Amino acid sequence: PPYRSKTVVVVKNSLAWNINDLNKFLLLRGMSIANGCGKLKNLTYCVSVMGEPQMPDLENLEQALELFMTR
Questions:
Q1: Are 36 and 44 contacting, i.e. CB atoms less than 8 angstroms apart?
Q2: 36 with 10: CB under 8 angstroms?
Q3: Alpha-carbon gap, residue 41 to 4, rounded angstroms
Q4: In the chain, what percentage of residues exceed pLDDT 90?
Q5: Are 9 and 45 in contact (CB under 8 A)?
């Protein structure tokens, strides 16, 4: 790919989640993600991996995303 980042993972919002609602849900759990920028806003979301996240951090995010999907 022509663009790569070692600090951010960008995910296609293929399930058409409302990222603002998702962030409100995540903030209650001490987490947040970024909405896509510009033309990609609401089409993608970004997860920062800067600052050395640990596997439990990513597992907690995964669990929260799964819980958001089932509500």
A1: yes
A2: yes
A3: 18
A4: 73
A5: no
